[in-house]
């Protein structure tokens, strides 16, 4: 009867809230000339000749406009901050925004600010506030949930237990304890019901309010089953991150967990880095969840496993937060054996971000614990990082600390760490003037890392060898070494190494008169250091840029760079770069004929060099005497 009625007519036909294509197909007009709009909570992919339009959440502006329109209050504006707060807490979901807009209309005594405050205070129970008469947002979600099979419903509930922002089929399989094929089918079923979105291929996301609904439903499952699901997903993240980090970082902490039912094939560095990048925020969320729900071992394990990745790829703020969470978890659990490694990792990131005083405290605490516990590998790690930080802060004790670390690693038979410590020791030896010893150590480190196939530390050794070659006047060899290191760093995606190699390359280019290339190298290095938040590197390259400007441009421009470097170096307590900046400013004054002012700056630099027992003290003393600027010299 229907098809006879519509035959030959030109209609705009709306079929609302269709369950599936079987319900729609018999109602489609048999003749051309009509437009049919079908709405559904499901993706009706089986409908031929249909154009699917998946409706996303509203934009912030659209959501604010809808709330104001439905509230119908003359004094309300979409620009009101409380309006933005309400729509944000609704996740810009049209149904939620609409219900709250109508509530505001029907409750004139409610202020928009009060409603925003209520939503914020009820962050885990917002759905309870989103209703109108006998309709609610939760009820709308439940209609889709009821269309799922029992296995699909279980996955939906357990997704509420997952703390991350998105999830793939492997993690979902771990969460539910199913095989990979079942996990994929169930995720697809939830996606078809619009309970999940797929912002990237194979990665699924729950809207905040849908997650809240899933979490509320999961609360009806037995506690033992929820705990088992949490254990499985945390084990999955620790296990898979441990597999990935083998291709990324030299140091690979051991974490013993139950292997998942399915895990991605991370057979090379490229796939490992891709997985770590995709899961970085989920790993952090998992560590936070573990720390908050009585699983400190998982929080500590995740922090240690991904430390090398976070440091190499510049995620230092995240590393700081993660290590602090792990340290709190270890202390609350009374796990003294876990504390030293967390303290050492924390100290490394503190040094990278310029908090050298805090770093020294972390390493000292780690050393004390390791000695109490008889933890020789941990003691060697803390000693090595302490030595590096002593070098950064101009403490002459750095050579002794690093030498002891090298000896400790050799005694342990840890060749990889021995090579890394040789690199660090060589840098401190160069600064102290023992270039010959540094060259020997760098060469040994290069051989060790090449034999182990460690390309990152091979690049570090090459970069350091280039610095020795530059100091001994072999500029051609230095440029080649820095070039090899730079290529390796870029292939590995290591931005900190790239910045270091560019800065060193720029110094060689400056010394060989290629000022244009030197400026380009230093500018790129500065950009990378600032992006990473590496303040020591920033001070270092600013001083290099000042030295280049003094030779190629004007003293005023050179002094400006050195003044910036001085401010950064003073802020992070780095006397090496502080003295270098003061010397640069002094030389700028000398070049401009302000001899007395220049002498004052040079003498300040000399005092730091002398205090830190730097060989630069003797060189600068000679400069001061040559210009008649040494105290007691006649002008």
Write the topology of this structure.
Elements: H1 2-6, E1 12-15, H2 21-24, E2 35-38, H3 60-71, H4 81-89, H5 94-106, H6 112-121, E3 131-132, E4 135-136, H7 137-146, H8 150-159, H9 169-176, H10 180-192, E5 197-200, E6 203-205, H11 208-218, H12 223-245, H13 269-292, H14 296-305, H15 307-312, H16 316-332, H17 339-352, H18 356-373, H19 376-392, H20 398-412, H21 415-432, H22 435-452, H23 455-471, H24 475-492, H25 495-511, H26 515-532, H27 535-552, H28 555-571, H29 575-591, H30 595-611, H31 616-626
Parallel strand pairs: 1-2
Antiparallel strand pairs: 3-4, 5-6
Helix pairs in contact: 3-4, 3-5, 4-6, 8-10, 8-11, 9-10, 9-12, 12-13, 12-14, 13-14, 13-16, 14-16, 16-17, 17-18, 17-19, 18-19, 19-20, 19-21, 20-21, 21-22, 21-23, 22-23, 23-24, 23-25, 24-25, 25-26, 25-27, 26-27, 27-28, 27-29, 28-29, 29-30, 30-31
Provide structural commentary:
The chain is 69% helix and 3% strand. The protein is built from 31 helices and six strands. It has helices at 2-6, 21-24, 60-71, 81-89, 94-106, 112-121, 137-146, 150-159, 169-176, 180-192, 208-218, 223-245, 269-292, 296-305, 307-312, 316-332, 339-352, 356-373, 376-392, 398-412, 415-432, 435-452, 455-471, 475-492, 495-511, 515-532, 535-552, 555-571, 575-591, 595-611, 616-626; strands spanning 12-15, 35-38, 131-132, 135-136, 197-200, 203-205. The longest helix has 24 residues, at 269-292. The chain is elongated and about 110 Å long.
Q: Which characteristics define this entry?
A:
635 residues, mainly alpha
By DSSP (H or I, 4+ residues per run), the number of helices equals 31
Unreliable residue stretches: none
Rg (CA only): 32 Å
Strand arrangement across the biggest beta sheet? 1-2
Distance between the termini: 114 Å
How is the biggest beta sheet arranged? 2 strands, parallel
Could you tell me the number of beta strands? 6
Shape type: elongated
Structural class: mainly alpha
> Could you tell me the mean pLDDT?
93
Share in β-strands = under 5%
Percent helix range: 55-70%
